[in-house]
Amino acid sequence: MANRPLDILNNALDTPVIVRLKGAREFRGELKGYDIHMNLVLDNAEELREGEVVSKFGSVVIRGDNVVYVSP
Is 3 a residue whose pLDDT tops 80? Predict the structure, then answer.
């Protein structure tokens, strides 16, 4: 049986991920948690623009309805 999306997120816990949001925003950070709505918690988060870091954050919570994809 194929992995379900939440199974893939579970396997990506405590590893670096890139999260693409609506409006072409991207964040990179260590995935610390998620829920069934795909709300995400990232540590050491950075906002990327055209592959370059434009802002650094500590921990961030990303609302799941803004997520386009999560790349482990």
Answer: no
